[in-house]
From TrEMBL:
Its EC number is 7.1.1.-. It is a multi-pass membrane protein. This is NADH-quinone oxidoreductase subunit A. The chain crosses the membrane at residues 6-32, 64-84, 96-114. InterPro entries: NAD(P)H_OxRDtase_bac/plastid, NADH_UbQ/plastoQ_OxRdtase_su3, NDAH_ubi_oxred_su3_sf. NDH-1 is composed of 14 different subunits. Subunits NuoA, H, J, K, L, M, N constitute the membrane sector of the complex. One of its GO terms (molecular function) is NADH dehydrogenase (quinone) (non-electrogenic) activity.
Amino acid sequence: MNLPESYIPILLQAGVAIGFVAISLLGAHFLGPKQKKGNSVKNQSWECGVPVEGNARTPFSIKYFLTAVLFVLFDIEIVFFYPYAVNFREFGMEGFLAVLTFVAIFFMAFFYVWKRGALDWDK
């Protein structure tokens, strides 16, 4: 297999990233704290000296997760504007229409989410 020289840095970075993840996971497994079985006082939840109320596994409202996902979705949209902002003169009218299409799709998604009541916290 004869790879062009331009692929070598990419493969090197991918190898370093995979190696880092593997070493981190193995290190956490072997060097991390071991959980003991049983219901001892040491394994109970503790919050700044305040007595525990309820179970830590109480489910959250789906609104929290939905808001987080929507934030990430619309926040990542902003990242895609950077290449256009840097090169908007070279893109010309065709690039402008592509960005308008991109924004229109996200506005449709935003209005859909709004009409479905995902942003209404009173429900």
